[in-house]
Amino acid sequence: TTMPPLMVRSKELFLRSAEYAVFTPVMRTHEGNKPEANHQYYSDEDTLFQFARLTQIHSRLLPYTRSLIQELSTAGTPVQRPLFLDFEEDAGSWDIMYQYLYGPDLLVAPVIHKGQETQTVYLPGGGSGWVYFWEVTEEAVVGPVTVTVPVPMGYPAVYYRKDSPWQPLFQEIAQEFGLATEGTSVL
């Protein structure tokens, strides 16, 4: 019998990696060397729709991303960085391995396991708290605290600082692309 390929990109893997890429400076995809064996953005209508939504969110974040690139070029501060870089005094932020800050204001905990339905997120202390990215709300969770949130496809666990100067942009994105448009809530 023939062994199935070990490295095949499923629809779930493709879309989860696209979710992650939204919160990076460069969002792109490749067909790979065996496009027929791997799921592509054009493989079905649902994938095309979901990928288009994610690329639109990435585009809407462009002013924020540009400010991060400017900070990188002038101060050398990484765009994507470990929590402890901004929360040195928060001992809990030192052991976090699978989430990161996208600039100083967005905390991202990407989905990395197949079939994952919830994500546990560490929210560092300090400031006025953290707001769930996918809802238009003024409610903030004050850290340090660990929370668990649902992660339906297209909605990775992302929080922003309540006192962020970018809050209006983040709320506009939540209004247009967030869970309210799907009729679901996690708060």
Automatic annotation (TrEMBL):
Keywords: Glycosidase, Hydrolase. It holds the Pfam family Glyco_hydro_31_2nd. SUPFAM superfamilies: (Trans)glycosidases, Glycosyl hydrolase domain. One of its GO terms (molecular function) is hydrolase activity, hydrolyzing O-glycosyl compounds. Residues 10-65 form the Glycoside hydrolase family 31 TIM barrel domain. Residues 76-163 form the Glycosyl hydrolase family 31 C-terminal domain. Gene3D superfamilies: Glycosidases (3.20.20.80), Golgi alpha-mannosidase II (2.60.40.1180). Belongs to the glycosyl hydrolase 31 family. This is Alpha-glucosidase. It comes from Cherax quadricarinatus (Australian red claw crayfish). The lineage of its organism: Eukaryota, Metazoa, Ecdysozoa, Arthropoda, Crustacea.
